[in-house]
Amino acid sequence: MSVQAIAWSPSGAVRIVDQRALPEARIERDLESAEAVADAIRTLQVRGAPLIGIAAAMGLVAGTRELRGAPREEFLGRLAELARLLAATRPTAVNLRWALERMARGAAATPGDGAALWDGLRAEATAIWEEDRAMCRRIGEAGLPLVPDGATVLTHCNAGALATGGIGTALAPIYLAHEAGRRVHVFVDETRPVLQGARLTAWELAHAGIACTLIADAAAGSLMRQAKVDLVIVGADRIAANGDFANKIGTYPLAVLSLHHGVPFYCAAPSSTIDAALGDGDGIPIEQRSPDEVKTVAGRPVAPAAVEALNPAFDVTPARYVTGYLTDRGLRKPPFAAD
Q: Quick one: pLDDT at residue 339?
């Protein structure tokens, strides 16, 4: 069974699994305000492109609970402030902006004052969450024919239940293959520097009873050369109209290796990850994170303090390296037009 990464608490707060604590401990936190949700997104307590969009939408609801008695203009003014706060947390994943814009449009179209607006916001945030759960399932169904009995899949970072409102994107076909009784083995890239593969993907696959082997990122090419990888499936944080996509740093070299060795390479993402306004990947903003993430492991230094470190959180993979895109609308090819 996959883990549930987000939910409403009985009090109306946003309940998350604090992903910084995994795999040593599973800690749930109730985020009572939009500010707390923004901090959770910024500090990777909650992460993954679909999930931060859901969390931001739910954060707007938590952050406006005390305004249910407010007049319309006051409520909408505060809502806009909170949306700007949440939008500024992480720049690369388009799902964040998409969810916040959808929430703002829904509020503008809802008549009435604070109580009616808040009820509408909660319904819209819940719909975003439920739709994501359904989209994950459809992504899994689109990719299921690619994962026959006995398949070995390699994945990078974490694009599973911990990154979405459902069973994941890249891991969704694996979950459904396992559900169907197929024997599947997954090579999990550790995914330096924050180790989302080691800490999160390996944890949730083991939790679900799916066979997996953790590997150093640099081992992927050798495994492909030995014909030990049948296909690669990764997630995405933003997909441009031409199919170029941003994903966790290290995805691009994995795509190059896959093409060189003739290994099919798939990108799995919901339609909300497609940014059709961007012509190509050159326009995708790449988040630069703290050098300390590279220079430390589990809080311990692994490099001299005086040494500089570069820490882009994402890279961009050109569309020419991608075999296909697994989406909630099936297996697709670019170009991608606006909905």
A: 66
Q: Where are the alpha helices (DSSP H) in 193-323?
A: 196, 202-208, 220-225, 251-261, 292-295
Helix (H, G, I), strand (E, B) or coil at 296: strand
Dump pLDDT digits (tens) for 136-151.
999 999 999 999 999 9
Q: What is the CATH number of the domain that holds 328?
A: 3.40.50.10470
Q: Which residues are catalytic?
A: 237
What percentage of the chain reaches a pLDDT higher than 70?
99
Domain check: are 258 and 283 in the same one? yes
pLDDT of residue 274: 96
Residue 113 lies in a domain: yes
| Count of domains for the chain | 2
Distances (CA, A) of 110 to 55, 61, 76: 21, 15, 11
Same structural domain, 191 and 158: yes
At 120 the pLDDT is: 97
The token duo for 67 is 């305004």
Domain end marker among 137, 161, 192:
137
d(CA 203, CA 196): 10
Q: Return the CATH number at 31.
A: 1.20.120.420
- Residue whose structure tokens are 């014909």: 227
- What residues have CB less than 8 Å from 269, skipping those under 6 apart? 49, 139, 169, 235, 236, 239, 245, 325, 326, 327
Question: Is residue 42 predicted with pLDDT exceeding 90?
Answer: yes
d(CA 48, CA 112): 34
Query: Does one domain contain both 158 and 120?
Result: no
89 shares its domain with 154:
no
State which residues form the domain around 157: 140-332
pLDDT of 1 reads 60
Per-residue pLDDT tens for 260-309?
999 999 999 999 999 999 999 999 999 999 999 999 998 899 999 999 99
Question: Terminal CA-to-CA distance of the chain, rounded, Å?
Answer: 33
The packing angle between helices 49-63 and 72-87, to 10°, is: 150
Asked if 281 and 166 sit in the same domain, the reply is yes
Q: What's the average model confidence in pLDDT over 155-170?
A: 97
105, 137, 169 — which closes off a domain?
Answer: 137
